[in-house]
């Protein structure tokens, strides 16, 4: 398992003591296995279903060690929606291929496009849609999401989870979203609003996880084509 540098530690937001200890997981490495699975799970939540094709590009440390550290099966486990302690994790590639998913792993020789040694760039597609996300594993099973492409939009979040994305035809949705966050005492670290062809995307980097009640209220908002909570 790669050591986390002092500089990296200063930039990690630990939410609880369990973030320091690390997750309950199928090994061998919290950075290269549990963190990789978490990046795959982001792709799963963005795509909302099983893709027909998966392309994973690795950079730097991930490119050098992904085979021996279980990064391949970890990322595919996340794409399939498995938890870190799911007994199926080591067999995830075989399970995915049995469901007709074409999988490609690529080792990139250059530097990480987001400046971190544990970088995975994941692309999913089927016959009608595609998503892309770039994530980094920062240690202890924690990740940051540095890039997202979805529904024709391109985003560069601050990185730390949770992140909420809403896509809607409503140009006034931001105030309602902020009202819900305030109601449930969830602080906003950063926000981005984008528009394309009359469709609006609202992205919020949040300070804490949303409760079940908050999630339900968000999901019940009208005229939302897609809502994603990472």
Automatic annotation (TrEMBL):
Residues 16-89 form the Serine dehydratase beta chain domain. Its cofactor is [4Fe-4S] cluster. Pathway: Carbohydrate biosynthesis; gluconeogenesis. It catalyses: L-serine = pyruvate + NH4(+). GO terms for biological process: gluconeogenesis. InterPro entries: ASB_dom_sf (IPR029009), Fe-S_L-Ser (IPR051318), Fe-S_L-Ser_bsu (IPR004643), Ser_deHydtase_bsu (IPR005131). The keyword ATP-binding does not apply. Keywords: 4Fe-4S, Gluconeogenesis, Iron, Iron-sulfur, Lyase, Metal-binding. One of its GO terms (molecular function) is L-serine ammonia-lyase activity. It comes from the Bacteria. PANTHER family: L-SERINE DEHYDRATASE, L-SERINE DEHYDRATASE, BETA CHAIN-RELATED. Belongs to the iron-sulfur dependent L-serine dehydratase family. This is L-serine deaminase.
């Amino acid at each position: 398992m790669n050591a986390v540098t002092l500089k990296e530690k200063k930039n990690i937001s630990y939410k609880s003591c369990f973030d320091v200890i690390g997750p309950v997981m199928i090994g061998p490495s919290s950075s290269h296995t549990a963190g990789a699975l978490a990046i795959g799970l982001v792709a799963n939540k963005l795509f909302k279903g099983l893709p027909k094709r998966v392309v994973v590009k690795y950079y730097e440390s991930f490119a050098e060690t992904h085979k021996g550290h279980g990064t391949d099966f970890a990322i595919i486990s996340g794409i399939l929606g498995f938890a870190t302690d799911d007994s199926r994790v080591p067999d995830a590639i075989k399970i995915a291929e049995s469901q007709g998913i074409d999988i490609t792993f690529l080792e990139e020789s250059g530097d990480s496009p987001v400046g971190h040694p544990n970088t995975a760039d994941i692309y999913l597609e089927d016959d009608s849609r595609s998503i892309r996300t770039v994530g980094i594993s920062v240690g202890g099973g924690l990740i940051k999401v540095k890039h997202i492409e979805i529904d024709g939009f391109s985003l560069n979040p601050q990185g730390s989870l949770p992140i909420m994305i809403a896509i809607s035809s409503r140009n006034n949705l931001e105030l309602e979203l902020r009202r819900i966050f305030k109601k449930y005492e969830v602080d906003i670290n950063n926000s981005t609003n984008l528009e394309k062809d009359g469709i609006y995307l609202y992205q919020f980097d949040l300070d804490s996880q949303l409760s079940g009640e908050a999630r339900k209220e968000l999901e019940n908002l009208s005229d939302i084509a897609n809502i994603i909570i990472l």
